[in-house]
Structure prediction request, 425 residues.
Amino acid sequence: MRMKRARLILDKLDAGEITEDDPQVLQLKQLVTSIGSSVEQGDLQKVDERIEFDFPSSTSIIVDPHCKSLKGFIGARWIAQQSIVPIEDVNAYYETNIKLGGKLVEYSDTGVEKIKTDLGRQKDIQEKPLCCHWEVFDIVTKTSFVIVDGWKDFVKKPEAVEPSLQRFWPIFALTFNDTETDPGGKIHLYPPSDVELIRHPQKEYNRMRNELRKHRARNRPFYVTTEGWLTEKDIEKLGDHDTCEVVKFKGLPPNGNLKDNLLPFVAAAIDGALYDTSSVTMDAQMVIGSQQQVPQQSRKKEAATPAVIQEQMRISGVNSNVDDLDDLLSELARASGEIMLREFSLETVRRIAGVGAVWPEQNREDFLNELYLDVLAASSGRPNKAIDVANAQSIGPLLLQAGAQLPALIKYYSNVLDSNLDPND
Prediction:
């Protein structure tokens, strides 16, 4: 990349597009110095073979509308990855000559298309013009190409995808609440999030709690009496008085009977079942399969079955997400093994695995057709020592009956109980 950028600046300098006092000339000198230092240290010759994984934003991946499922991109004929990059970076990397003007669309830093005005574009030395860059993967022709919004030619002509995979797509999707759709159907290709699924139960929950708050406000205690005999100060004192204060009314109640003319109003009791949110909470748990708080412990006399059902409901959604993540990691592991078998040299393999490692160097496609990388007992979950100890206690007596050696069992139990324990000690 450094050499390509230096070559681009040299071409601009030779064509007279920039002068000797242009800031890009200083950048050219820095690039030449950096490349020379790398050559002296041997960095350009000692290039380690490795697999790199990128994490593009979900909104930068554009999927063919004919796709039926994001997991595996079933039914998709093409996938494009969009990025907003400086035009000079595109020219340097792909060795093209894209220039502003014509039908080329210029973009802002926020990824929004800039609107052209009659006043023309105000030139800013510090501002680098940006373009919308699409890398398209076409499964029909098994090729990939690069285009830029508004540029009439290919930035990179259709070529075979490197590194090639049997699944073809070099993009892997991690999705939850997976859906499968058909073109023209009501179900959207992109699965709904937990926030969207829980939206209606949450709104109903908020509505019930809000109505309860209003009902409680209306049922606040107050007094009723006949009009005409209480003064304004009496009414004010009746609503605001100190503890154990003796309140004296200036007005005289009718018939002189205060008890019959000043009564506390008795409102209808609030029905707790009317505002019970347990049904809404259960709906939310059934939708997303989990909740933030663990349900309260069941009573001693209560059967264990309801508590087990609640706990299973609580962890079902979490386990589902863990399974989706494990599926993604398994696909990445298989693809990585395929790429290593295709691309890695014997020197790299021996540096990783040891001098005695064996690696096919010819007819690698034959090995790919015969070998299948399978993932065994892999999980992204946290280790659970309690389960490991329980399994060891269950299988230990069976191993002794089967004739297992005692030192091997001691080593096994030591590793299960504490990996820092040394069986020799």
User: Anything to note?
Assistant: The chain has a mean pLDDT of 80. The longest strand covers residues 78-86. The CA atoms of residues 4 and 65 lie 36 Å apart.
